[in-house]
Give the backbone structure.
Amino acid sequence: LDVYGAPVIGEHERWLGVVIVFHDITELKKLEQVRKDFVANVSHELRTPVTSIKGFSETLLDGAYQDTDTLLSFLEIIQTESNRLEMLINDLLNLSNMERSAFHIELEPTDMKAVIERAVETVHPKLAEKNISLELDLAPVIVNGDGNRLIQVIVNLLINACTYSQENTKVSLKLYAEGDQAIVEVEDQGIGIEASEIGRLFERFYRVDRARSRNSGGTGLGLSIVKHIIEAHHGNVEVESEVGVGTTFTVHLPLAEEI
Ligand code: ADP
C-alpha cells in the first residue's frame, strides 16, 4: 500500500485539512514479483545444462577423451543437455511470442480429428517406450483454429500423460462436439495431482515435484504454452485429477461456423 499525505491550505495560510491518498499497489507488486521469479527461473533453467556441458567438455579436453568409454558416455551427456537447452530456448521463444499483446493467430476451419492424428504420430514412440496403450475415440469435428498450434497442444498433453504415468498403463483420448464446442479429453492412469496444486499447474516453470519433473525431461513450460494457445482460440482447459488414480485434461474449443 502506498500512502501520500498533503495539507490543504486555504487563504491566509489557514490549514483547512489534510488529503490522504491510499494507493493499493498489491497487484503491481505481485506482477513485479512474478516477473522477477520468471527471470530467476529462466536463468536457473538455462544455467543447469550449460554448466553440465562446460564441465563434461572440460574434463574430456583435460585428457578423459583418451578412454573410449568415458568419451562416449560424456558425449552422450553433452548431446542430451544440448537438446534440453534447445528445447528450453524454443519453448521460451514460443511463450514470449504468445505473451506479446499483439499476439494473434489465424483461425480457420480445421479438422480436429486430423490434428489429433498428427499429434499421436509424433508422440507414438514415447508411448511405445513405456508400453502405454492409447485408446482413441475421435468423432469428425471441425474447429475454428490454427492447426499447427493445436497439434502442439495435443502433443504437450499427451507427453505429460505419458511422462506422469507408469509403464503398461492406458491413455485415452476422446474428441466430440457438444453444443457449439469441440471437446478433447486426455485421460491417463498416472500419478495424479493433489487438488491444492491444480490452481498453479499452468504457471510458467511450475512443477508439482520439482526434482522428479525436471528429471522427466520437460521444461516446465508445456502447460503454460497449452493455456496460451487455447485462450488465443477463445477456448479453455480444465483439469480433474485424483492422486494415484489418474488425471484428465479437458479442452474446449469453439466449433467452426457452419457454412
Ligand atoms: P513439465 O515440463 O514439468 O511436464 P508442464 O508445464 O507440462 O511442465 O507441467 C507442469 C507440471 O504439472 C508437471 O511438472 C507435473 O508436475 C504436472 N503435470 C502435468 N501433467 C500431468 C499429468 N498428466 N499427470 C500428473 N501430473 C501432471
